[in-house]
């Protein structure tokens, strides 16, 4: 591991000032991803700004939304009474992620900022445009079994690994950030980026900006929700495909719907057209299959991930069936 400076500010302004003036500085909180990346030489920050002393771990309900501080632990959020009551889909997604040990260390801010698990990104002997811009994409013609079927570019075909973020994009969350120019709010759907020509940038955070909280509006998605994660073993594995499904059903008619997928794109993949195809229809398997067809428009596979073209629509149907059946 390379040598680095370490600071642990007690004021948010000090953390932002330090981050803004040093492009080689990185925020650390739980460290469950960053430390791995540093040990392997994938990320080599020269300064770590430990924000664990900042008061950013509250979970509260204000007005018509639930606000979760960036330092709230994944495990604590998944078990929080308020979250279970108002946002059960988020709790399900969090519990599907990582292991209990990691959930008790990893923070909400860190979860959304975690890096892809593309093997080429982690192996510094192999080309990777995300790790080293201009070096090429090893996965494009390589072993791309875990990779994207939507929104990729010829520079990067990686997927975002977070389960929590799939639920948050479906639930229309907003990311609250604070930076040298003040505070701003970023709709969750616009927080992560598609790779384009600059896959090294995962998000639309500006230099010096710190994620302080995430806000989720109240909605009628407290009953018919399901987070389905398809993975190669029962726990502690990243999704091959995941689906966050939330329905509002009245008299077997779908009044409102939210749908998003994970494991299929460089960002949590919201399926707005498929949602439109659900609204006003009866909550039947036929409706769900039609929505899944809409969701898959534009999907394209690579040599080793063609299975996702079948797995993804089947997962959408299964997630919607389970959500609809929840009494
Ligand atoms: Fe790197 Fe992205 Fe290609 Fe993976 S898919 S090797 S992360 S550029």
UniProtKB/TrEMBL annotation:
Entries under SUPFAM superfamilies matching the protein: CO dehydrogenase flavoprotein C-terminal domain-like (SSF55447), FAD-binding/transporter-associated domain-like (SSF56176)
One example GO MF annotation: oxidoreductase activity
Segments forming a coiled coil: none
Key words of the record: FAD, Flavoprotein
Residues annotated as domain FAD-binding PCMH-type: 1-221
Identification of the protein by name: FAD-binding molybdopterin dehydrogenase
Pfam families named in the record: CO_deh_flav_C, FAD_binding_5
């Amino acid at each position: 591991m390379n040598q680095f400076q370490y600071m642990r500010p007690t004021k948010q302004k000090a953390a932002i000032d330090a981050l803004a003036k040093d492009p080689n500085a990185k925020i650390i909180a739980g460290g469950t991803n960053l430390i791995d990346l540093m040990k392997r030489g994938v990320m080599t920050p020269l300064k770590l700004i430990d924000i664990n002393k900042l008061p950013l771990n509250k979970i509260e309900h204000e007005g018509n939304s639930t606000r979760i501080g960036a330092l709230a632990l994944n495990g604590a959020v998944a078990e929080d009474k308020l979250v279970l009551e108002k946002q059960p889909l988020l709790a399900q997604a969090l519990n599907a992620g990582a292991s209990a040990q990691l959930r008790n260390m990893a923070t909400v801010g860190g979860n959304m900022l975690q890096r892809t698990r593309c093997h080429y990104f982690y192996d510094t002997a192999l080309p990777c445009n995300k790790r080293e811009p201009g070096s090429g994409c090893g996965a494009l013609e390589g072993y791309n079994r875990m990779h994207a079927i939507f929104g990729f570019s010829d520079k990067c075909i990686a997927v975002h690994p977070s389960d929590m973020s799939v639920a948050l994009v479906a639930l229309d969350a907003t990311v609250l950030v604070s930076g040298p120019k003040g505070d701003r709010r970023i709709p969750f759907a616009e927080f992560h980026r598609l790779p384009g020509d600059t896959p090294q940038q995962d998000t639309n955070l500006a230099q010096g900006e710190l994620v302080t909280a995430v806000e989720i509006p109240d909605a009628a998605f407290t009953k018919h929700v399901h987070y389905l994660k398809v993975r190669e073993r029962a726990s502690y594995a990243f999704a091959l495909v995941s689906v966050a499904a939330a329905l509002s059903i009245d008299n077997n008619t779908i009044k409102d719907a939210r749908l998003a997928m994970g494991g299929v794109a460089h960002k949590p993949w919201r399926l707005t057209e498929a949602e439109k195809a659900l609204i006003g229809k009866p909550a039947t398997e036929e409706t769900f299959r039609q929505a899944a067809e809409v969701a898959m428009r534009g999907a394209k596979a690579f040599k080793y991930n063609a299975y996702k073209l079948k797995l993804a629509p089947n997962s959408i149907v299964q997630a919607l069936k389970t959500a609809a059946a929840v009494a």
